Amino acid sequence: MSKKYKLLMISDHILSNSGVALQTKYIAEHLLKTGRFQIFSISVALQHPDMKIAKTQEYGDDLIIIPSTKYDDQNLIRQILDMEKPDAVWIMTDPRFYSGLFAMAGEIKKFCPILWNCIWDNPPTPWYNKPIYDCIDFFGCINKVMFNICKDMNYMDRAKYIPHGVPEDKFTILEESQDSLRKKHIGADDLKDVEFLVFYNSRNALRKRTGNAVMAFKLFLEGLPKEEQKKVFFCMHTPPKDPEGQDLHRLIDDFGLKGKIGFSGKQIPTEVLNEYYNMADVTVIQSSEEGFGLSCLESLMCGTPVIGGDTGGVTDQLVDLETGEMFGVLMPPDAKSLIGSQQTPYIFSNHFSYEKTAQHIRDMYETKKLLGEKAYKEKFAGQRARDSMLRRFNLKKIVSEWEAVIVENCEKHRNALEDKIVEIHEL
Asked: Quick check: 117 and 413 in contact, CB under 8 A?
C-alpha cells in the first residue's frame, strides 16, 4: 500500500458540536475510513479541559487531535510542518481567524498547498481580500456568493462550489405525529392545546437578529383572536444570555411573552433536534449575514418549511434553481447597509422587516388551519424539499468531492517534490 496522505486540518475542535466542527468531522471521518489518510487536527476552542494531544479509539494514530486556542498559531503550525511534513493544509471558514496563517503562507507553501473550505456572506466582491486569496491553492466554496467572488477575481482554475451537507439518516421526516412529539417536548398543561409551533435554531448573536424573530412572533401572536393565541408557541434553540446577543429572558418578560416562548436548553442530542424540526410548522431565520445556515438545511431535510432572508447560503437552499421550487419564503431585504471594520472594510448587511416576517408566519398558520398537518407540510416543503436537499446538498457526494480534491492536490505536491529531487540529482 502506498504511503498515506498526511493532512493538517485547522478548524473548530473536531469533537465539538459547532456547525464548523461538524462539517470538518464529516469530511475527516470520510477520509479516515478510506484508510488513505493520516490527519493532524489543530482543534480550536476558547477553553480545553487540558492541552494534551489526543487520539481516538476508533482511528488511533490516523487522527491526532492537537488542542489550541488559536486558528493561526504560527509556532504550532511550523512545528507540525517541520515534524510531520504534511501533504496539504486544509482550513475552514472565516478568513479573520487565520491572519497569522496567511502571513506565513509563503512559508507554508514551501512545504505543501493550502486548501480552504471558504465562505463569504454577502456582496460586494471583497477586493481587499485579494492578497489572501492569491496564496490559496484551492477554494472549496460553501455558498454561491463565494463562488461568484472567485469568478470575479479570476480564481476559477482553482475553485469549486462544494456546499455543506448533513447526515440523511440523522435529519429525516418522522412518522410520529406533531401532536405526539409536542407532548414529549412541551408537555406543560398550559401548552397542551398548541397547534402551530414556530422554531428558531441559530446563535443569539447580533448578525442573527434574534430579537427580530421574537418581534415577528409577538406581532403574529397579537394578530390572532384571543382564543387562538393559546394554540401557538415559539420554541427557541439558542442561549438566551449569549454575551454576543440580547438578553432574551428580559426581552420576553418585558414584551409580555412569558409562557409563549420557550428554550430547549444548552445542548440537545441530534435525534432530539430532529424531533424539534418535525414538531415545528416553520423555522424562522432572520440573519442579516449568513454564510450557509445549517438550520435551514436541517429543517428542509425534515420537510419543515423555512422563512428566511435572502443572504448567503440561505438563498442557495430555499430556492431550487433547477426546478424553480421554493420551500417556504425567501424574503428580499427591506434595507441594505454597507457596513465594515478595519479588517473588513465593506460588506452588505441585509435587513428584514419583522412585520413582513409576522405576516408570512400568519399566512402559513392560516394555510395549516385550512389544509391540516400533512397537506400543509407538503404544500410548502415536505418530501419535495427533502428530495431537493438530498440532490443538491448530499453529504456523501460532498465528502467524496473533498476526497478527490485533496488527493489531487496532494499528488500535485508529491510530484512537484519528486521533480525537485530529480533536478537536484541531475545537477
From this structure: no
Q: Does residue 197 contact residue 231 with C-beta atoms inside 8 Å?
A: no
Which residues are within 8 A (CB) of 213 and not within 5 positions of it... i.e. 6 or more apart?
200, 236, 284, 286, 354, 357
Distances (CA, A) of 110 to 81, 82, 113, 293, 399: 10, 11, 8, 35, 27
119 grid coordinates: 465562505
Q: Phi and psi dihedrals of 365, rounded to 5?
A: -60, -50
Distance CA 260, CA 190 (A): 10
Q: Is the peptide bond before 113 cis (omega within 30 degrees of 0)?
A: no
Taking the CA atoms of residue 318, residue 321, residue 325 and residue 331 in that order, the dihedral angle to the nearest 10 degrees is 40
**pLDDT tens-digit readout, 373-416:** 999 999 999 999 999 999 999 999 999 999 999 999 999 888 87
Residue 201 and residue 279 in contact, taking contact as beta carbons nearer than 8 Å: no
Asked whether the predicted pLDDT for residue 188 surpasses 80, the reply is no
What residues form DSSP beta bridges with 258? 261
What count of other Cβ atoms lies within 10 Å of the Cβ of residue 159? 22
pLDDT tier at 153, thresholds 50, 70, 90: very high
Beta bridge partners of 90: 9, 115
